[in-house]
Amino acid sequence: MTDHRTRVLIIGGGFGGLFCAKGLGGADVDVTLIDRSAGHLFQPLLYQCATGTLSIGHISRPLREEFAGHRNITTLLGEALELDPDSRRVTARRPDESTFTVDYDVLVVAAGMRQSYFRNPQFEQWAPGMKTLDDALNIRQRLFTAFEIAETLPSGPDRDAWLTFAVAGGGPTGVELAGQIREMATRTLANEFHSIEPEDARVLLFDGGDRVLKSFAPELADRAAGTLQRLGVELRLGVHVTDVRREGVTVTPKAGGPEEQYAARTVLWTAGVEAVPFARHLAEVVGAPSDRSGRIEVEPDLSVAGHPEIFVIGDLVGRDDLPGVAENAMQGGLHVASCIRRELTGKPRRRYRYRDLGSAAYISRGNALLQVGPIRIAGFPGWLGWGFIHIAALTGVRNRASTVATWMATIGRSSRYHRAFMLGDSHATSDQRYTWSTCTEEPS
């Protein structure tokens, strides 16, 4: 027994960490939440930020603001690096590269996943992923800059390459990005240029499967494919992207055959995910089995075998084929908070049971898919259902109200009000900017 209140340390301020902390608000515990961005990000709407429909403020909220009313919750800016399970201590890195430590009685790992390039890290330079606000702003810059550069070029192969956009991965994020790029080109930018016709832009969507949106029912996936093709998205299925470079991509058919080259100066990557370095480090130091992507095997209550004081939630859970979706992270966070509360009163933990509340994917303006058990909706009704689901999950009433207002304006007009981007100052000194670009290797 100790003479201090139970110290709960949560790594990650995504859906899992956010809901776990909320579930412990006002409890007889001291909660510390460490996150590398100091804000909660609504990842399902990142692509709308990247394509200019929504602003950063619509899809994110400072964690300090979120927990301002909970005196027992402390939020810290940092990136978890190392775990000492014997002393129950985590070492984290500040943005200026210095480190600090936090002790815990209960550790909740909700660090999430990062983009995976399938052992081809060199692809990232030319094909950004879609996981963070920085990713969204990077993609926004690349998308709109491509049209600007094309405007200055004469007709020919160089201009065509700048007006060709390649998306690797036919899951929800890839489908949503591809649809938004075509919609942006055909509606938003259609009458704004003089030398080019933005609607001539090609959008190529590559995936190794035989259909897009494999997690949806086949009939819904087919509806999505039809909608994408009517928008002008070119589907290239049954292929793997095997090379990404400055000038374009190389794809290889799964069934065999010659490589195919595509000249595309803008490539976006949504093809896979893998565990963040801290999660792999955790599995190593506690001896927990993990799969190829780094998902950690856990007990029925989401704790790590042999370490009941360590929980893993969200995308990192390698059990029962749990999906890597926001709803699973939310439910996992609330479940762990309940386990901690029950133990405070001497009650046993309960088994985690995930309740599938459905899936939704946005295709284009007025077209979305909604799948809830046997209910399958597409088109405009699916779009309305998609909107209500996402608005309900946004953090903060202000975020919901402003997002609804923005969407209403978008319905009536083709403009995108958040298209601003900056190329950066080539004279800026790197030591004036905080960055996470170093110390990215896994701890030894």
TrEMBL record:
Task: State the superkingdom.
Answer: Bacteria
Q: What is its EC number?
A: 1.6.5.9
| Keywords for this protein | FAD, Flavoprotein, NAD, Oxidoreductase
Gene3D superfamilies, per the entry: 3.50.50.100
Catalytic activity field:
a quinone + NADH + H(+) = a quinol + NAD(+)
- What's the short name of a Pfam family annotated to this entry? Pyr_redox_2
EC class:
oxidoreductase
One example of the protein's molecular function in GO is: NADH dehydrogenase (quinone) (non-electrogenic) activity
Q: Where is the FAD/NAD(P)-binding domain?
A: 7-333
Q: Which family does it belong to?
A: Belongs to the NADH dehydrogenase family.
Return the protein name: NADH:ubiquinone reductase (non-electrogenic)
Native source organism of the sequence: Mycolicibacterium hippocampi
Q: What is the lineage of its organism?
A: Bacteria, Bacillati, Actinomycetota, Actinomycetes, Mycobacteriales
